[in-house]
Every structure is written in C-alpha cells, then in structure tokens.
Input
Amino acid sequence: MSGHDDFAYEPVPGLPAPLPAGERLLWQGSPDWRSLAIHAFHVRKVVLYFLALIAWRVAAGVEMGHTAPAIALGCAWLAGLGAVAAGVLCLLAYFGARATVYSITTGRLVARHGVAVPMTVNIPYALVDSAAVRRYADACGDLSIAVPREHRVGYLITWPHVRPGRFTRPELSFRSLRDVDHAAEVLAEALRGSVATPADARPLPTGVGPRTAAVA
Output
C-alpha cells in the first residue's frame, strides 16, 4: 500500500503554485521540532511546573505526616500528568514542524504551515519593513519579518510562526531554524537585489489545497 502525501498537489514542496516567470527559489527550511517544542510550545516550562508541583507534594506530605507510599503515589500521579502534557506538546511540535516549509525566493517570503488546515502566508519584498534574527542556546534561531501596520499578519491563524510578544503588530517568523544565519544572509541578499514592481505585490495563486493569506 502506497502512502498518501497531503501536499502532493504542490508543484514545488512548500509553494501552493508555480512561481511567476523570472522568480527563483533561493532557500527552503523547516523548524527543528525539539527547538520548536521548547521555544514555541514551552514544553520545558511545563516540565519545570510539574517538577515544582512534585516538590510541593513531597514537602506538604512530610509536613502533614503522610506515609511514604502515599507521598510516592501522589508524586507518581503528578509525574504521569506532566509526562502526558509534555508528550502532547512534543507531538504538536513534531507534526507542526513536519507540516511547515519556509521559502525565500527572489521576490517574496512564503510560509506554508498547518497540520489539519494547511495555510500559506505570502509576503512580497515590497512590503518588508525590516527583518531580525534571534538566536537560542540550542544553536537554533528565529528569523522575523516586519510589515507595515496596515498589512498586518494574522496572529492567531499564523501562530506559532510569529514573533513572540508582538501582539499589536504581529511579525511572520521562521521559527527554530538550524541554519538561521544562512537564511538571514540569503534574505538580506535577496532584499538587496529585489526591485519592487506592481507584480511583486501580487500573491501567489492558491491553486488547489491550502488557503493563501497574502499580505498585500
């Protein structure tokens, strides 16, 4: 039995339709799911929270004179809940990373994301205000792109592929990239070489499949 590819209709993986004539694909990448789990889904904070609950359960049990088996049972119950919560977040990060493809072309940035409902965010270079890189201790990093306020990115439908903490003016963010510095260099070179024309501001056609959220 052959497997089914949910994105088999894409002419180029990560792009909902062929690029316009003269436009070339320069770079593609996807999030590292472990880094995404830590920095977007905050799995490490969840684990620390449950460890704090376990420590509190031990201290409270000793103070109230509970037996060792009772304390151990309470700690095991909390550890089980914590493992389930962390596991669910890791699964979300894993499948989310697998369903995400970031693309840099000679004319735009494209982010295809979404497990259940595929979405595509398309930002022509004519709308790029600025870009910023944030590096993490795990050797991954985020590449964030700001657009004018009147062309804002939808925070809820784009999360977690948005810059953390930017709620009033959301920024598309290529999250948890292993090669974030290389991606930033490619983008900087593409921006320097881009020439804004009316055609640059047109979104890619949606074709069949994912909805395209064009920031234009």
Observations:
- The longest helix spans residues 68-98.
